[in-house]
Design a protein that fits this description.
Helix content of chain B: 25-40%
Helix content of chain A: 25-40%
Number of helices of chain B: 4
Structural class of chain A: alpha/beta
Number of strands of chain A: 17
Mean pLDDT of chain B: 93
Largest interface: A-B, 26 and 27 residues
Structural class of chain B: alpha/beta
Order of helices and strands of chain A: EHEHHEEEEEHEHEEEEEEHEEEH
Number of strands of chain B: 5
Distance between the termini of chain B: 19 Å
Radius of gyration of chain A: 20 Å
Shape of chain A: globular
Strand content of chain A: 25-35%
Shape of chain B: globular
Low-confidence stretches of chain A: none
Number of domains of chain B: 1
Largest sheet of chain A: 7 strands, mixed
Number of helices of chain A: 7
Oligomer: heterodimer
Strand order of the largest sheet of chain B: 1-3-2-4-5
CATH architecture of chain B: 3-Layer(aba) Sandwich
CATH topology of chain B: Glutaredoxin
Chain lengths: 289, 102
């Protein structure tokens, strides 16, 4: 696949609105999202302040979004975006199995649930990792802990078990998880703090116990914006934007909950529209240059 | 140009006024993205030495510099570590980081 004009990450009201506007402006787009995101919309209480749609139920809203995308011929790419790299002239969008390229990017991922854990930022790169396949190498024959926030985390833990001496798997979501590998222990405990000494990770304190581990792999569903897009300016968990929805990275725009309160559908949709128009203008100038 | 380090031999980098050492591996996605950005920066910053360390080929160096994630950039000034940066960085941020290590 060649380079598209705009990649839009997220299919809530902000992302959908951005996609519709970009498509109407003849942009070649990629819309990344998941059925789960529309689930989130469908579970919402009735929305009462969206002009023209009095008292619309969340489920009807989600269906209307999906239908509108269909009418406009926009397909949803159902892959989880794990990283976005600002390469200078374009953006590289990484998913578990593919790499895409886009001239500009619109972030509309909403707010990540799940808070960071004490010590997480301090020990990032010193025992804390977000990528098992990248960093398993450094924990060969050493004990590690995995905080699993999604189904993919289980596969990553299995991979770690092939190189590390022992894997403590702490499921952060409900449901049962079992492993065939003998060196994996599933612990239904609540992590509290990453423990360090001499500038590196030495353990994980949970409410119930203290685990002696050299590495802690935190495998979340939604990563924080700064982790998703290295170099992106973030303040108080929100992406910093101006009124044109421009971030500090040229060609990268953001809209909706990810840029701050209020968390409202109509605000997200409006910002999505602005972000798309800004991206169109950015692409136009880029092509002229 | 980013010079590829071989046989765990960092003597040249340690003797430089300022050297940026990029710890990477062929199987690491983010490393592949950082590579060309670093190469571009190295063409502009001729007063700084740039070195690439494949951690598979040079395991001793990874251990010596306590590298536990890749990509990791280590800044070495006259043989002393003055900065460490984990993960991908876009070019302007990378240039800023190198300047801050001077």
């Amino acid at each position: 696949m060649g380079r598209v004009d705009i990649a839009i990450i997220g299919n809530g009201p902000g992302g959908v609105s951005a996609a519709l506007t970009a498509k109407a402006r003849n942009q070649e787009i990629l819309l990344f999202g998941s059925a789960k995101a529309s689930e989130k919309v469908s579970k919402a209480h009735a929305v009462r302040n969206y002009p023209g749609l009095p008292d619309i139920a969340g489920e009807d809203f989600a269906n209307a979004f999906a239908n509108h995308l269909k009418v406009m011929g926009i397909e949803l790419t159902q892959e989880q975006v794990t990283n976005i790299y600002a390469m200078g002239n374009y953006y590289a969008i990484q998913t578990p199995n593919n790499m895409y390229e886009a001239t500009s990017v619109i972030l509309a991922t909403g707010m990540a649930q799940g808070k960071s854990i004490a010590g997480e930022e301090e020990y990032l790169g010193k025992g804390v990792s977000y990528c098992a396949t990248c960093d398993a190498f450094f924990y060969k024959d050493k004990p590690v802990a995995v905080l699993g926030y999604n189904d993919e985390a289980k596969a990553e833990a299995e991979f770690l078990a092939t190189t590390s001496s022992h894997v403590y798997y702490i499921p952060m979501v409900k449901g049962d998880v079992t492993f065939t590998a003998e060196n994996v222990t599933v612990l239904k405990e609540r992590p509290q703090e990453i423990l360090g000494a001499d500038g590196k990770t030495v353990g994980l304190q949970t409410e119930q116990s203290k685990l002696d581990v050299d590495g802690v792999f935190i495998l979340r569903d939604a990563v924080s914006p700064a982790t998703l897009v290295p170099g992106l300016k973030v303040e108080n968990e929100h992406v910093v934007v101006n009124l044109q929805m421009e971030t500090n990275l040229p060609g990268c725009f953001a809209c909706g909950d990810i840029v701050g309160r209020p968390y409202q559908y109509i605000k997200a949709a409006g910002q999505g529209n602005v972000a798309a128009l800004s991206a169109v203008e950015y692409n136009r100038l880029k092509k002229q240059a | 140009m980013v010079k590829e380090v071989q046989n765990n031999d960092l003597a040249e980098a340690l003797a430089a006024d300022l050297a940026i050492i990029d710890f990477n591996a062929v199987w690491c996605g983010p490393c592949k993205m950082l590579g060309p950005v670093l190469e571009e920066v190295s063409e502009e910053k001729v007063d700084t030495g740039f070195y690439g360390v494949d951690v598979d080929e040079n395991p001793d160096l990874a251990q010596q510099f306590k590298v536990t994630n890749i990509p990791t950039l280590v800044a070495v000034k006259n043989g002393e570590v003055v900065g460490k940066q984990v993960g991908f960085l876009p070019k302007p941020a990378l240039v800023e980081w190198i300047e801050s290590c001077k």
